Amino acid sequence: MNESLTITMLPANEGDCLLITYGADTNKKHILIDGGLASTYQKAIKPYLATHGIQELELLVVTHVDRDHIEGVLSLLKDDSLDIKVNNIWFNGWYHLIGTTPAPPAPVEPVTALDPDEPAPVFGAVMGEELSPLIQQKGWAWNQQFGGGAVELSAVPNNVINFGEVQLTLLSPSRKKLEEMIPVWGKECAEAGMIPGVPIIPTPMARVSLSEAEKMQINVDALAAEKTKGDHSKANGCSIAFMLEYQGKRFLLSGDAHVDLLEAELKRLGASKAKPLRVDLFKIPHHGSQNNLSKTLLELLDCKHYLISTNGNHFQHPDDAAIAKIVKFGTAESTLHFNYKTRFNRHWEKAEWQETYHYRIEFPAEGEDGYKSLSF
């Protein structure tokens, strides 16, 4: 009986949508992490589930409320034609931020639809508010392993949760990170007249975009040496991140989690530069943002496969400084896997750099933009 562990990045534009499949050929089980945009659901998730005969999810994880992670999940819950059973869902809503379990279901108010192909705003609390009653109406087991409370560190013994043969070790968020989100969410409530509220959509900061020729001449060592500024997004700080272990294989699935918390939790698990923790795969946080990756974090891991999910929309991820850190401080002879080939990442195919820094690059096969699968 063949048993395998597979991760598939689905086309989520600038967002995340990851499907984990594990188990024997005759009894495959599935975990879906995030849903990308509404277009991700219509163009990828729904047809992928149908094509592969997937009618049951062991676990659905909504890591946090940014639109490029949550909107496709909203589409899934609203699709009455979809015949799927979800055994467990992890998602932290407003009540989880303030340390209680959700209130009884309330009527779902219509929300103005966003163009599914428009660049995603940074924050989607209104979508979090919309998702909560939908989960309740479905009757799905919501944060059941945490007693209905928040998915957070220290909520269960040793932060370990077992789903049959799969073990998940929670790495984020902490109670502190969740509580830091409360005033942000509350401010939006007050300004929008909702309780708790519609988000303010910030205007993305202008970014300097190098030409193709300039990108080919960047100094990898200098970029790798740049100090991580840190991610100050309260929503990203609330990201659910965890280690998944199955049959001796280990995936680090980081959402958009903050680097300080990931470092602290890996060290708590015994990882160090002298004795890095072996992982088979590391899904790089926040689509390769330089603010969510550090030399320290990379040196805590012995990893041969790094995944970056983004097409570069909106914030032009991945940042060259982040990729430089991976190739400089990550594990030698490793492979970087992208689910899109774009002007923001294709220069890292440069043969001279691959030879010097001992790494490989893999992009999707022709005609399969957005899709990238790895099996172990």
UniProtKB/TrEMBL annotation:
What residues form the membrane-spanning segments? none
**What protein name applies here?**
Metallo-beta-lactamase domain-containing protein
